[in-house]
Amino acid sequence: MSTLTAIHPRHALFGAEAPSPMLPVCDHYAGVEARMHKSLALQAEMAEASGRAVFDVTLDLEDGAPVGGEHEHALLVAELVNSPANAYGRVGVRVHDPRHPRFEDEVDTLIKLAGPRLAYLMVPKLADARDTAWAIEVIKTTRLRHGVGHIVPVHGLIETHKALQQVAEIAALPGLESLSFGLMDFVSEHRGAIPASAMTAHGQFSHPLVLRAKLELSAACHAARITPSHCVVTEFKDKRAVGQAAEKASRELGYTRMWSIHPDQIAVIVDAFAPVMAEVDDAVEILSAAQAAHWAPTSHRGQLHDRASYRHYWHVLERAWLTGQPLPSEIEAAFFGA
Asked: Under the phi-then-psi rule, with left for phi > 0, alpha for psi from -120 to 50, and beta for the rest, what region is 244?
């Protein structure tokens, strides 16, 4: 038997631990009908080369629904989630916040009409851990009431002081798959004490209070084994600024996912979050040698490796696969085949 068909890295390196969710590195938001259709078409187009979605599409009820037309917009979104345009099953929906009068109606409409096809529900403006737990419970009980067997993961948005103070408790709640940082509202919560420059592509990485918030959210997510998702870059026409922000978020702050608010940002974010080719090559060589050695310590280019470094390189390889990078056919078949 080939060594590549031996014990899979997930089993050898993580055992009975619950695996961290493998989410695409880019989360693209669209709320206007024409843009939602274009986003789904782009998702399918970019998936052609790798056979899988390299970014998620979040259909947006919070910013996309007209006031007074929330229910009708939810019906439209449910129709899109159910449509052939959702070819890869990576379409989620952002509903209104838990205190909004349409929150429960939106959750009910989406799960009743499109529950089995929902990749996740994003819940914005989480006030605290209690608020988050209640939102998760509403989604769960609605799913059970409608007999939907598919568990709908919950994503949350941290935007306030109190939510940030309780971010570790929030991140540990069962049912939560990802937390995002809401830059604009967080800065506004400081009542002018943080300058507007902290909302720019460069300023958000230099202001101490904003940087502290990002680091606390990222650390809490990793401790709870869920996905930290980085905030938007509003200078959507400046691809260089988007790329630099994505690289900083990924390489320096530990984020494994990032929001996109314009189609031009998607490829830039995916490229920035992808490991460089040298890292991928090292991961392939190290993990292949480790598996051949039945996961005992090995040496690679004069450096000792064991299960601790194997786990790191497995995540590198996972990220390469998620971002659609080409991998040796035997590696892709053995590690990421159906």
From this structure: alpha
